[in-house]
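Revision sheet: structure tokens.
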Amino acid sequence: MSVTAKASDPPVAAKADLRSPDEWAAQQFPLSKNGRLPLEFAHHMTAAALHEWADHRTHAGAPKLLSAEDYAAALMAAQTPDKQGNYTPHGPALSDFSSRKTSAAKGTQQP
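Predicted:
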């Protein structure tokens, strides 16, 4: 089966701003002069767990690719619980292999 681009698909150059979560983290949370990660890197690790990025890498054989906006939204989602104290993943940042993919797209939390 071959896949061809439709006229409505964005040009390949527009996809160049997609990066792995680790690449965004390296840019946003650089190492200190003594080689230590900043405390804020914990936000990345929390987002990684919530959005199941390690599972994505395992199943896809490559990291999840995100825009800067989706990475920022994933960080925010991992820091902002709802009124019941649940954390809802940012749908576009969630691993394609997550069992929560459908519920996140609908804006609901699945246990």
